[in-house]
Each structure stands twice: as C-alpha cells, then as structure tokens.
Amino acid sequence: MNKVLVTGGAGFIGSNLVDKLVKDGDQITVVDDLSMGLIDNLPQNKQVKFYHETITNHKFMKSLLIKEKFDYIYLLAAVASVADSVARPYETHQVNQEANIYILEIIRKYHLKIKKLLFSSSAAIYGRNPELPKKENSSIEPLTPYAIDKFSTERFVIDCGKLYNIPTVAVRFFNVYGPRQNPKSPYSGVLSLISQSILHHSTFTLFGDGRQTRDFVFVQDVIQALILLTKKSDVEHEVFNVGSGEHVSLLQVIREYEKISGLSLKIIMRQQRIGDIKDSYADIKKLTKYGYEPKFNVYQGLKIYWNSL
Ligand code: UD2
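Above: the input record for the complex with UD2. Below: its predicted structure, written as tokens.
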C-alpha cells in the first residue's frame, strides 16, 4: 500500500486520478481549496483523506509532508485559467509556482524519501511556436504568466530534482477533456462548454471559423500516463507531452458530439479570440516508448463524457 498525495485532487484530472488510486489500493491524501474542484468529485472511501486547504499555506503543507511521509506526490493543484493569470499574475504565481517549489524545498530540507514526484505542466508553454507536432524539445515561447509559471516550475522540479537527488518527472498536458471537467468559467475547456450548451439547449459561441485544431486527450488516457510515469522507477528528471497524438478541428468535434447526443448545437460565430493559436498537437513518441497507448479516440471519449452528464 502506497501513501499518495494529490494536490488539486478534488478537481477534474485530480479526482479521476484519485478514483484510479483507490482501485489500486493506495492510501490517498487530497489537498484542495475547492476553487474549481468539488467535494462531490471525491469518493466516500476510507482510503481517501481530504483537506480543504490551499497549497499556499506553507505551515500546513510542511507539517503534512513531514508527518505523512508520502511515497508518491502528484502536483496537480493550479489556477488553471490562463485568463486568470493575466488578470492576477502575482496571486496565480503563488499557486502555480511558489507553492510547488516550497513542497520541493521541504522534501530537500527534511530529506523526505519519496518514490516519485510528478508536476503537471501545460502545452501552453509552447505558446506561439508554430512547429507541429510539438516535441518536448521544441522551442518554448510562453505568452502568459500561466505559461511562464508552468515552464519555470517544470524546470525547477526536473533540474532541482536532479541536483538534490529527488526522483521527479513532469508532464505537459494538451487539451484534456472528460467527466467532471468544470464548465464554470468562459475559459474552461471548450468541450466542457460545448457539453453544457448541448445539455441545456443554450447557444455556444464559436470563436473563429471552427477550423482550428486541438489535440483532445481523454482524461482516462491522461491517468494512464500519470500512473505509468510515476511507477516507472527508471524514468526520472524528464518531461513528457501528454496528448492523444492526433488533432481534430472544433467543427469535426462538434459534428461528432451532435451524432453522439442526437441533439444539435446552437452556434453563434464570433471573431477569433485574441492570442488564440490555430493548431496544436502533441508528438507523444517519447511517452509511447515507455508503453503509453491512448485508448480513446474523440468519438469514444465524448460518448463516455456525454453519458456521465
Ligand atoms: C488550452 C488550455 C490552456 C493552455 C493552451 C495552450 C484548456 C481549457 N486551456 O487552451 O490552458 O494550456 O491550451 O495552448 O485546456 N473556443 C470557442 N468557444 C468557447 C471556448 C473556446 O470557440 O466558448 C475555442 C477557442 O477559441 C480555441 C478552442 O476553442 O480555439 C479551444 O479552446 P480552449 O480554451 O478549450 O483551449 P486552448 O487550446 O485555447
């Protein structure tokens, strides 16, 4: 039985990970401030301990880490909205970078023996770089405080992991979608917004001509990647793209979704959003070499998502 810490564990990706860890028989501690996550996302299970706390509470995080002596740590807590980071750069920096560095600092200072720490970064770090598909060694062109924080924390986790002999790994998420994705903000993932519009027969605003493409990766495939990278003890101090390796246009996705739901989406077209990139998809060869194999295409993933609503 492993002791596992999941920051952001009540959120979309975090809670799907917690479900998997419960099945694997692990003892899980979740720290989440419920800014985007929901308590109802967590299973009522003796294996799961929940703290309604922010990771920026240093005192709390220090005593938790020292007391619990975790085997595995997943750093998924973040202010995930790029727009939020533009509006509140310093506050989001404290969550997206500082709090994570502090966790590493406690591990270093108190010589905590962990088996693996994983940090979740983002495809946002490639920014305006037009190269396709994006490789892990493609140039980094961050455009927002969010992307800058994700990249610097990723480097810190990897390079300081090496320097202080802490086993770490980082992942760059592409467009993750699936059950429990929160459609609360206009900057939430586009598939969660489309889902809401179809479900409630409300109008969806399509920015641009709909021909922009994205690498939509189903959350269960992401969980597969996270478990694989933490459990492989020979993978250390590396960063990996986590995507499906394919890209589809928004119009294609909308058509698929209409087929699945049997409903039609009311669309209103608006100008492309400022700063929007045209196309994005991941080169996932580095990860597939270690056995990662996406199991859900967009049609299969959307079907599960739709049935979960
Ligand atoms: C994703 C990430 C972002 C950052 C970025 C890096 C999400 C939610 N966002 O932004 O954090 O990592 O990738 O490149 O995963 N759209 C509409 N109508 C809407 C909302 C969106 O047409 O109501 C369009 C949007 O203009 C874009 C596409 O849908 O062309 C995808 O938007 P998104 O916000 O889901 O994701 P993305 O790739 O822009």
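Notes for the reader.
The chain has a mean pLDDT of 96.
The first strand starts at residue 3 and ends at 7.
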